[in-house]
Specification:
single chain, alpha/beta, 266 residues, Rossmann fold, three-stranded mixed beta sheet, nine-stranded mixed beta sheet, Ubiquitin-like (UB roll)
Amino acid sequence: MSSITAEGGATPHIDPRMRARRIAVLRGHGQRRLQRVIDLGLLLAVAAGFAISLRSPLLDVGEIQVSGTEHADPDAVRAALGVAVGDPLMDVDLGAAGKAVAALPWVQAVELHRGIDGTVQVQVTERQPVAIAGEAGEEVLIDADGVVLGPADTAPAALATLVRLDDVVPGAPGTAVPTSTTDSVALAARLAEVAPGLVAAVSVDGREVVATLVQGGRVRFGDLAQLDGKVRSLRTVLEQVDLHCLGEIDVRLPGNPVLTREEGCS
């Protein structure tokens, strides 16, 4: 059986089962396209909602917590951070803020974290003073890297064991001492670590580093080669030898320290 078209051609007969199958396939394609459109719409709606929520007051900076500051001023840390309560949390540039805080004289390292609760946490690791320098009444603290930390009275508990750098004219806090005095700083740092309280002052005399003992007398270190051995040798002499009338201890050869006494002392 066939039908006649307007042009006079015959239209082939289509089995009803095949027609139903074709309709089902087309309907399935349509449903899948519709589902994809719905899924895309939902995704865009979620993204838009998330973007809006990031700018919501609920995600503003609510608190700035500073920890690890014994000598550094927490308010100075907050000021350097460049972040204020009420700023959008996601706009906080942690990298730039960390660099600004790390530039403070007392700060050796800093870690920053921000929480979804609006809290910005600043964890500071401070530099440790190993020496003092400067005129009486204007002394400043200096760390092992030669960085001027600040006035000596900011760490009064450490003053009793710190070495004075006689040949250092310090600059402003945050600056470094001249490279010509780095040997003095290096010796002071080592003494602060292994022999605190034994040496009053160090300086560079010509081409060698010399020290003045707290109890009186002078120590010749030469250069800083074999520094650990020289410091150990000095401690051994101070602990085991009668230091009456001590004039000088020469530890330039750490395995063979030489002690001389003041002339005419009895």
